[in-house]
């Protein structure tokens, strides 16, 4: 009967003693003490767009002058400037033409002697004797009485006019590009102008990437219960490329000593090895033991006082950096940027990434773990009072925490909470913050997705934060959003939304949705019954588990009213979205829950309607005239959009 | 005898009537009236780092929940939260362990009934009945008297503790990424988490690039007189890639109708065709005629009132955009960014590039052509009073004008000059402006190149502007640079540099150089003579041509003193660098000039020493304590650096 796995527990217990958690700075100090971070040796790459973003390995000294010769900048006549002095439209200076035409690429033979001129094209080589070019527009060609070709110059030239002197662009021997320069189209043009065909650039560090874990599936493999698709391999490979490295994907290794050891050997052929996984302490042990057994110095840091990322391990094996990242996606990518990316950049010859920070106000209280520096992922919202930083609050296990964040701020070790209204310094990530044309904060709905998609098609960038109806209303009151989608019922009156409008907010009419009970088809406690009857049956059955919604959700208010104080099994399981409710029921972790009807079908669930509700849009009155808000309201009135919302199952009739 | 080419002159004259110069806005209006700029159709690319920078072709709707199940965030025990209420270290709650271990990837079988708990790993699937997980750190495992496995819980759990609910990261049916999103590592992680293996992205527009001109050489071909290496092909290919397109290089076509026509047909198989060349009006005609003959609407703009770039032609052939860029590199790349890049971005599904402007002060007067909007390339320098914008002033024929510029400002049509001290709006180009650690403005020297290279190796970014000694002194007086390298002789005293120091400037001792006469070896007028004797011989020979330096150069001051008022042939040819002087002499355009000895050898020239001179560094006193200035001064004192400067031919002895 006690099939429980004591070794697992022992591993868990014992590994805690391995973890010697050190501050971030100390971790970096120990890691770098064992690393040589000079740029890798040069490789010679043909001149092409493939060189974009590469780093010059050595100074480029011009092997020749550009231009190679004194070059004409216009079509016209090469002259001695002194010959043209005093020339005007009324009294032009007449010069005899020399018998050659200096088209592009033609080497002059004749010297321009006093009183003569030579025809020259733009880009042509200025001949000896000439020190200026007169534009053809300021001349007239004619033949003299004896047929001699002549040119009348109508404007005087000063010495050097329209002549680009040899070496004036690039001088032979000049250092024209410095080592360490990141190549763009502009530098490639300079290299081409020098006639170079290959360029010495720092070799990109090859970074082997290994995901470990029995639970991992490669994208494309069929899903099975308890499994997750490996997102780290894809994020890390791309992040390696973004940091200037060349990813070497090693795939997924199960939590087996031999399997991981073989992949580690393979990975050590690269310049750097990055493992992610071992979110379970027992499993993580295996990689740690293998790396630790490969010689000195081995693992130099195991545990850093940061959140996310505490279990990260840093090591050096055979002179190569080896990093064990946590398995949870946000922990993995966060510790990647903290410890791995700087090493890649250094090996690639790139300067450290410039810190890109902005000041923002925290609109809500943020809690932190006291013993660690905690990095809080935030979404930035433009408000009249400056930026507001909304914690994304999905946790380190979520791939979207990092992916959808605009940045993060740090709560120092020893601080337990940062109060709402505090100014924080946000380190931006990924890309420049594009100020959204329209910010929508509040309750989520599939119908809203449709509207936002239409706006995106019109080129309107939308910032969409799902924080629930109550959170949305608060954001609208604080002026942090343009639109707050809400579906809130006043329990006293049964009226939706309008009773919740604070001063300064107006309500745009949205559409009706249906809340109801979702259940697995064929469950006799629900199938074929009316909602009230089914609910009574469910409450009467002690084995019948519900799944609840989080406090602050409109659905939770409705549900609490319906339960009238009852707290059936599962009441404390608080799913955070309609989807999470449907998933819990579909997978048998609960037997019923409340959700809108549009989620029932995708999960193959039955649906018993309980309550039609209004999903409307609270809008600060002073935002109504913003063009993007107008466009949103126009969409709501648009016949084709309304038809599509109706097809999705929403109620757009007048009396909804 | 009249071998002059009248057809060339006729072409030049006649083509001016073709040019119908229109303002920039009108040019864009006409061009876009004939174009459909919707994003190209999708192609499906495997999930990999190759997707970085690609643009999503359609919204991505989540096909599954992430996580798929309620997931534990820690190693510990899945419990019913109500069972743990009141637990403390002193009075733990004891629960019976269920007989399964929920490692990662394991689907639970047993329900967690009241009074029981199940071992669960981080990432494990929370079983039915449980609504929270207790961390292993807050528990003790033991066996009961009958061997029953038990766990003592020492801390109460609240419902949902350490549980990530199914769909809380990504909900099935949620629009998780919008079409038009540019993919980074973060989005790729999200796509992998959804199990996707291929992603629909907008196909990159294929842009064919053709250079035309008899004078062009492909990089790697041997140089010949009058020829230039084709830099446009490389710049434009890379710029196409930077704008989100895929370059299709067509190489170089001579100025022959059949050759260009064949390449144009080939280019029209791509999505867009870009030609550059035809700097000579006659030659440019050919491309224009060919494109114009391929059907309606053909060429819709020929000539735009901008500088650089006036002769650009915009056309549409068989529904495809065709652009004829001028041949001069800066004109070509400037008009590319103006007319071509926006079209590529639109076809690639990218938003228009965000304008990136800064305010700066113009330190010198800038002249402009009255009839056109003139874009002046500038180099930005950080000063205590904000940014200063130095015109790079190399002209549109120079590849470095654009490559080395930090941005440009526009002098509107009708304005002839912008006065020094004017505030201008600078559009930045290429990349973020990295504020240089050290700015050096003044006279150029090969020895300075060595010092700057050393600083670059130490990670100090140097901004180096070669504006001559007088320009450097003025910049130092205005506080626009940290260091102004100068070599200026006071003609009255023969003393170098110190007489020129204004208040607030100090002089750091540099090194000695030798100015002298450069000439072609074997020229009897110079070979084997002393400088004074040679100069006398040169001035006596009316066929002996000199090449002068530009006004403001230290060398010019010396030369004028030497000539004592004489203005021999070539006096008005003003080369702008030591290299340009050496090139003019080496190529026979002049017979002698004055330059420093270090340029003679690379050009194979003879050298007659005239005057030792001091090359020193004027430094604003209030900059002396800047760390980067300190590092520069340290280098000047460094024995190994001094030895290398000596090897280059500079004089670092005490009495120099």
Automatic annotation (TrEMBL), chains A, B:
Pfam short name (any one): MoCF_biosynth
Enzyme class at the top of the EC tree: transferase
UniProt cross-references to InterPro entries, sorted A to Z: MoaB/Mog-like_dom_sf, MoaB/Mog_dom, MoCF_biosynth_CS, MoeA-like, MoeA_C_domain_IV, MoeA_C_domain_IV_sf, MoeA_linker/N, MoeA_linker/N_sf
EC numbers on record: 2.10.1.1
GO cellular component: cytoplasm
Stretches assigned to the MoaB/Mog domain: 208-346
NCBIfam families named in the record: Glp_gephyrin, molyb_syn, PRK14498.1
Obligatory cofactor(s): Mg(2+)
Family: Belongs to the MoeA family.
UniProt GO MF annotations: metal ion binding; molybdopterin molybdotransferase activity
Keywords for the protein's UniProt record, in alphabetical order: Magnesium, Metal-binding, Molybdenum, Molybdenum cofactor biosynthesis, Transferase
Function text: Catalyzes the insertion of molybdate into adenylated molybdopterin with the concomitant release of AMP.
This protein's pathway: Cofactor biosynthesis; molybdopterin biosynthesis
Keyword check for Cell wall biogenesis/degradation: no
Organism: Aerophototrophica crusticola
UniProt catalytic activity: adenylyl-molybdopterin + molybdate = Mo-molybdopterin + AMP + H(+)
Taxonomy, superkingdom: Bacteria
GO-annotated biological processes: Mo-molybdopterin cofactor biosynthetic process
Keyword Transferase among record annotations: yes
Protein name: Molybdopterin molybdenumtransferase
